[in-house]
Design goal:
11 helices
Amino acid sequence: MKIYKNLLDIKKPFQNTSVTIGNFDGVHCGHQILFREVVEKALRINSTSVAITFEPHPLQVVRPDFGIKLISTREQKVELIEHANIDVLIIIPFTKEFARTTAEAFVDEVLIDTMGIKELVVGYDYAFGKGRQGDISFLKEQGLRKGFNVSVVEAYYKDDILVSSTKVRELVAQGRMKDVKKLLGRYYQIRGKVMMGKQRGGPVVGFPTANLHISEEDLRPRHGVYVTQVIYEGRCYGGVMNIGYNPTFGESKLSVETHIFDFNQDIYGKPIKINLLRFLRGEQKFSGPDELAGQIAKDIGKAKEVLGGAQKEILISCDERYNQ
């Protein structure tokens, strides 16, 4: 997949493209339908399949007070779009100046002059341009006048739940990881570099942990303990993760601590990915390290039951094609 991080990087305009546009936060099952549709249309008319997205998320620019929490990092979004077999990804820097671009100017200057568009695929609720003037009816009218076809992908439901980035964020915040997996088509994942913690996991509690930093501004799962799958250097390990403030030790800083099963490598400063499979319990305050250790042992037992019962799914998600 060819990636352009700015429209100015496109030195030679495209001549024949099938395009989809969106923020694609989380690259959920609804987004994946858009990608399949645009790839199929590109194959049918022998054109180039293109996905256009924006960085940062437009709401972070036009509504910073909204405080939107992103499901996926830019790195993860790019990986997932590449796995959808898109030929070209264009990441447009979204600025206050760009936000003033009218819908018609975007159609003329980006879709027609730069992309040479023949097919446009958008979601049922998509709108763009200054004041969100570029809605579905506008796009269809523009397509008729300017020579490109517009296809609209209708709302998609999984078990009566509307698949949307907003709904995914809501479910993550509630710790409903089984439902999150339905909407994403994969496990919800956090990733980062392992950092030095308080060094209590092994010496004090008896269960060493890998610690990740998570910002207060990031999308955060419900505080508590989760069954996890940890991916490090292409290998997968079971684990239990606690996200919260460590009330037993009176901490005030949010932390993510994961005990990885059957693992004894030094991974400080190394990147890991953590898939969240199941919420086990809320965060609790214990009388001290001994009571906490006893509860962690119980959590590990339950986690191993969950991992054993989902062994086939776990093996599939360990494949590099699915653990993004």
